[in-house]
Amino acid sequence: NAVIRVEDMMREMLESGIEPDLHSFMALLTAYAKAGDTAAAADALTGMMQRGIELDTWAFNTLLQACATACDLESAMKIRGQMRAMDVPPDDITFLHLFHSCAKRSKQVSTFLTDPDDWDDWDDWTGIGGGDWGRSGAGGALSIGGGGKRAAEKQAALTESRAK
């Protein structure tokens, strides 16, 4: 596994007293991005900032690649917001990963809605007719919920297929 190899390399560097630089962190970020591990990629970016390594478009694009691989449009949009806040300019690759995140998320929703048996679960997506629609959590993120057993099974299947 590439992630394990790069993590081992970083661990060995630190144990040897060698401080990781931009290029070693980018190897780690790239491995996480290809695996779709957005949390680990974000942690690596945080590690870069803690070591005073300047975050550039390349670093953020790699994190956006992780979001695209994981079909995590919400995180991709937050990362784009962080880029704006830090005055990190986007490039064509930035938007490629954002569009890829949108397309994969759209495909998930489309897959869910192509099954006519799910059309009666509209309330699970909209909150109309018994579901919850509102802000929740510390970040005030939108949450869509409902009691539909079929919707929960579909979401579990989508999550499982994404993990493959």
What key attributes describe this structure?
two-stranded antiparallel sheet, 6% strand, 66% helix, flat, 164 residues, 8 helices
Account of the 3D structure:
The protein has helices at residues 2-15, 22-35, 38-50, 57-69, 73-85, 92-113, 122-126, 149-163, and strands at residues 132-136, 141-145. It has a two-stranded antiparallel ribbon. The chain is built from 8 helices and 2 strands, in the order H-H-H-H-H-H-H-E-E-H. Helix 1 packs antiparallel against helix 2. By secondary structure, it is mostly helical. Mean pLDDT is 75; it is low at 125-149. The longest helix has 22 residues, at 92-113.
Instruction: Output mean pLDDT.
Output: 75
The coarse silhouette is flat
- H-E order: HHHHHHHEEH
**Count of alpha and pi helical runs:** 8
Summarize the structure.
The chain has 164 residues and is mainly α. It contains 8 helices and 2 strands, in the order αααααααββα. Helix 2 runs parallel beside helix 4, helix 4 runs antiparallel to helix 5 (73-85) and helix 4 (57-69) packs parallel to helix 6.
Task: Walk me through the topology.
Layout: H1 2-15, H2 22-35, H3 38-50, H4 57-69, H5 73-85, H6 92-113, H7 122-126, E1 132-136, E2 141-145, H8 149-163
Antiparallel strand pairs: 1-2
